[in-house]
Amino acid sequence: MRTQVAIIGAGPAGLLLSHLLAQGGVESVVLETRSEEYVAARIRAGILEHSSVELLESVGLGDRIRAEGDHHRGIYLQWPGERHHLDFVDLVGRSVWVYGQTEVQKDLIKARAADGQEIHYEVTEVELHDDHVTFTDKSGQSQRLDATAIAGCDGSFGPSRQAVPAAETYEKVYPYSWFGILADVAPSTDELIYAWHPNGFALHSMRSATVSRLYLQVPNGTDPQSWSDDRIWDELATRLGHGQNGWKLTPGPITDKSVLPMRSYVQTPMRHHNLFLAGDAAHIVPPTGAKGLNLAIADVALLSKALIAKVKEGDERLADRYSDDAQRRVWRCTHFSWWMTTMLHTSGDPFDAQLQLSQLKWVANSEAGATGLAENYAGLPIGY
Ligand SMILES: Cc1cc2nc3c(=O)[nH]c(=O)nc-3n(C[C@H](O)[C@H](O)[C@H](O)COP(=O)(O)OP(=O)(O)OC[C@H]3O[C@@H](n4cnc5c(N)ncnc54)[C@H](O)[C@@H]3O)c2cc1C
């Protein structure tokens, strides 16, 4: 087989890249280890930044976001006894949309199918070489795919990351995890609540008008099945301030429980010869700043332009700059995600707790503090 760009991974980075390349007249083949059903149903991120929505709209993927997504002007920041609304539209003229990663995946899969895109699901033994990829297809046959460029969009556990020799890596592992639940109940809030509490951080998020997504800070290694539903709702009620100023948390049937460890990871450079990394293959952020999915989108917005110029015109200039250009935003988002995480998650140290409360009060009450958070959360323009 031969194609212009071989894409490893059918997550948001890989599928959006193949969509953007197709719009620029460049053909690609996508290889994915999982099944189509698995990829379409994987529950992960849920917040789209302003510029992610603008980009998706500009390439014909915005209709369902506008029709079924939930537009949020900002977020609530909270600590015991106080809740403050930060209005991003007033502060920076930008906003976010609640639209689940599963829906982004479904839209991308549908758009790629409508285009006749070749996606090989359930492949195994994927090996990267400078100008080709070898793999075993679903029927068990060994295949070779030659390509002008290879895009490693295979997340944090795929082979692309390891295929960049002598890469520099930066990593921080946090001493806590997120215990996430999905519940069949209408959200008890109109916008996300980020709550600092002496027992640990809690987040009230949502997926739709009838499905809530909530998180609790828990120690690493927590077994989600060791928490009863009642215990989860009681702890959420305590940390989110049920009963304060008349606010109520409404519990409902829990349909999913999972524990997500938190880490920051950046690998540089994001290119080695014809191999280019994008999304989680190159970097991981803790989910507190809602940046993982948005960074994947921003990476492939840059990478698609670089690959179109390289493949169609032999112009390597954008490809040569890709890693440096992408890393500017990667480090901004890495810092913001670390900053949100360390401001909101308790460490057990009373000194740290006082610093966190001081920081939260400054962010909530000073226009300069609130604007900094709003600008980063709603997201900087693509190409920052
Ligand atoms: C469990 C989990 C929960 C998360 N929750 C949140 C959240 O609550 N909020 C938030 O903002 N972000 C969250 N994230 C982060 C966000 O989902 C990611 O940043 C985003 O999915 C990145 O997209 P991607 O396409 O780069 O990588 P991925 O979505 O990981 O896609 C990579 C794809 O490559 C495939 N692949 C792997 N190995 C191979 C191989 N050898 N060959 C071919 N294909 C391969 C994988 O199956 C996958 O489909 C979460 C991530 C994880 C892992």
Automatic annotation (TrEMBL):
Q: Ranges for the FAD-binding domain?
A: 2-337
Supply one GO molecular-function term: FAD binding
Q: Which domain of life is it from?
A: Bacteria
Q: Which InterPro entries match?
A: FAD-bd, FAD/NAD-bd_sf, RIFMO-like
Name the keywords, alphabetized.
FAD, Flavoprotein, Monooxygenase, Oxidoreductase
A Pfam family that this protein carries is: FAD_binding_3
Q: Return the PANTHER family for the record.
A: P-HYDROXYBENZOATE HYDROXYLASE, TRK SYSTEM POTASSIUM UPTAKE PROTEIN
**Name this polypeptide is given:** p-hydroxybenzoate 3-monooxygenase
User: Where does this protein come from, organism-wise?
Assistant: Actinoplanes lutulentus
